Amino acid sequence: MGGTRAVALLALGSFAMGTDAYAMAGLLPDIGADLRVSVSLAGQSVTAFTLCYALAAPLFSAVLARWGTRTVLVTALVVFVVANAGTALTGSYAGLLGTRALAGAGAGLFTPAAATAAVALVPPERRGRALGLVLGGMSAGTVLGVPLGLLVAAESGWRTALWLITGLGVVALAGVGTALPPVRGAAAPSLRARFGALTRPRVAVVVAVTFTQTVASLGLYTYLEPVLHRVADVGSAVPYLWVWGIGGVCGSLLAGTLVDRTGRPALLAVALLGTLGAALTLLPWAGAVPGLVLLPLILWGAVGWAFVVPQQHRLLAREGEGGAAAVGLNSSATYLGGAVGSALGGLALAHGLDARWLPLPAAGVALAGVLFHLIAVRALAGREAVAVPRDTGTEPRDTGTARRDAGTEPRGTGIDRRDAGTEPRGTGTARRDAGTEPRGTGTARRDAGTEPCDAATDHRDKDGTGAAGATAAGALERNTP
Q: pTM for this one?
């Protein structure tokens, strides 16, 4: 099977995950009424899903670290199907939380493995598009699956909507299990590898910014229906969820193309995060003009989903064989942010905050993420620009060592030149003893005579394009958004 068709299968699985994760936001009033709990309390089922995705999924991934990619994907879909069937059958709030947590673990196994597999199945120049397609499957789950689930729930109840999601999982399981080709490379990095990735500064910055973005975006989305009721006095949230989801699909697909064409994923990420903050700031006042609320909604959906593409692309491009661990860590940060955001949103509503104003603190978190990103990448660039000259031999103190180690002559040749010039090893001693030059001339030639102290540096970098200059410029390019 070709790489494109295989990636389409992964997108189908992502579609099921997206439908499950985001349909619950629209079902909260019905679930709360059925199980006799408040909307804010029912919203904690979304927190259970996202928190288990973020924290429990890495533990399962560590257990399955030696399994093949396809096996991990199939296992994740089996867990997903069983968990959603359990949600459809539950009759208690505790059962709801437990099955949603299990579904989150299945999604946490599937999503990073699908992203890694998608990159492995296509040529390097198409990786951005492949990631966009897989992540676009999740956003397509919101634009198609979520409204469809809400329509089914309106006619037949929320449990029927969960059975629909279970059926989507079964279809995805059949496709991935029977038709996905073997994928080279580890799909499930170990727990040590995941946390080891977090110790690398550039990975830590990407993951931290992802966390802030999802606190703002996914956390607020959990309560989108009560927000819309207060902002625009809407009767049904389904058309607005369609708009949000359409923006998400377009954003995911266009982000991959932009990454491939510009080669500047860091710049794209910070622009998307700033746009998210602006859209959420506009939302509370958009209801004053009929139809205007659609603008911040479609922007929110587009940039919220598009943001994941450049972030994962940065991790996979920079980390090489450790990219799977970094992507898994980033996926955990995505849903940990969603869990924290939905928990804080529910807490705010429970303590009397008008849902109309809930987008404002979310916008503040997004803009704080922009500020952190700009400060952090410039600090990293400055640190590497200072560190590079010391490591590449541009300082006078280490010139002799750098010259020996830089590849201009075999190791040890510098010693021979000091002692003998162009004669065999040891001849310099004979020349000194024979009186052809004063004793110590070899040392004098080494320290002061034949070339300046910085000659090794001049030899490599005299025109500004040598190793040191290139390395420093590369460090700035890698870390500047």
A: 0.66
